[in-house]
Design a protein that fits this description.
Length: 332
């Protein structure tokens, strides 16, 4: 990365720090600037802000990683196979420093038939689920439920019963493929089961395109850039899976954005499968910025008419507890 912008005069650091904080990039900037020999050239207050963000992230991530291993061990002791997803898996593997990548929560994926046992482990470990998830709301139709720890540190665990929360991405062949492409990663607290590089790439691409609603976040793209640099990533397997599950447009969109923002590129001569207009339209609708349209697509993906109507009814007339939660989420 080039840091010529630092030499511009004047540079509005108040704006830059605020933008970096919103994008959760300050810890990453801190390490990049340090490696480029530019951190010491910054104004003292700016340097302190970046260093504070890095060390705060390092502390929080250390606690989160230890907790992720602890919960995984407890679930596996109960016969529940569990895969660590997204941030916590990346921090444990591809990031050279644990403090570079802020975590929002701990994401764990279990098979749907093991959900009750996994929830029991979380409850026995001091976690409670958020009340709005059990009332009349569209959240009930997501393959994900959030649990908050009652005592410090106030960690959040998102328990997944599918690799993606939204119904539109719950493709049986894709789910089976991802589950079969896992491996053990060693940490100082114990082992975590995570995706291998190829599955990590596919999962991150689809998560970014469906989660960011067309505006791919720079931090998620940096995750992808690190995974794309892994020599174990099997691009041929990616192309074969993309053709079989019709996800080529989403993968190409994520890769193009990663190349543009971070310079990471796929191997020269990579041939993506040809895509139909239906596949491109499905990708566009899945990544729509319009929330009602996204829930419309998810409702149709449920296939069972009763479930579809129940989802749309919950969206139009949600319970008061869900409306209060939405108001709090928007205010943040």
């Amino acid at each position: 990365m080039h840091w010529n912008i630092l030499d511009s005069d004047p540079l509005d650091w108040t704006w830059a720090l605020a933008a970096g904080r919103r994008a959760r990039l300050l810890p990453l900037w801190c390490i990049m600037l340090r490696r480029a020999g530019r951190l010491s050239t910054l104004p003292a207050d700016v340097r302190q802000s970046l260093q504070h963000a890095f060390y705060a992230t390092l502390t929080a991530n250390t606690l989160a990683l230890e907790e992720a291993v602890h919960l995984s061990v407890r679930m596996e002791a109960q016969g529940v196979a569990v895969v660590a997803l997204k941030g916590v898996a990346l921090v444990a593997t591809v990031y050279p420093s644990r403090g570079m990548r802020p975590l929002g929560d701990i994401d764990l994926w279990v098979q749907s038939q093991d959900a009750a046992q996994a929830e029991a482990v979380l409850q026995a470990s001091g976690y409670v689920d958020l009340p709005h998830q059990r009332v009349r709301s569209p959240q009930r139709f997501l393959a994900e439920r959030a649990f908050m720890r009652r005592t410090p540190p106030r960690l959040q665990v998102d328990l997944h019963t599918a690799p993606f929360a939204r119904p539109v991405l719950q493709h049986p062949a894709l789910t089976a493929w991802l589950w079969s492409h896992t491996q053990r990663a060693s940490t100082e607290y114990g082992d975590l089961r995570i995706f291998d590089a190829t599955a990590q790439f596919v999962h991150l691409c689809l998560h970014a395109t469906q989660h960011d609603m067309g505006r791919l976040a720079p931090l998620r793209l940096y995750d992808l850039a690190l995974v794309m640099a892994d020599p174990q990533l099997d691009w041929r397997a990616v192309a074969e899976l993309a053709q079989a599950t019709h996800i080529t447009p989403a993968l190409r969109q994520a890769v193009a954005a990663t190349t543009m923002v971070w310079g990471a590129a796929p191997p020269p001569g990579l041939l993506w499968p040809r895509t139909s207009w239906r596949e491109r339209l499905r990708c566009a609708l899945t990544a729509s910025e319009q929330r009602p349209l996204r829930w419309l697509v998810d409702g149709l993906a449920l296939r069972a008419p009763a479930s579809t109507l129940a989802l749309w009814f919950a969206l139009l007339w949600p319970a008061p507890a869900y409306r209060r939660w939405r108001a709090i989420a928007k205010s943040r």
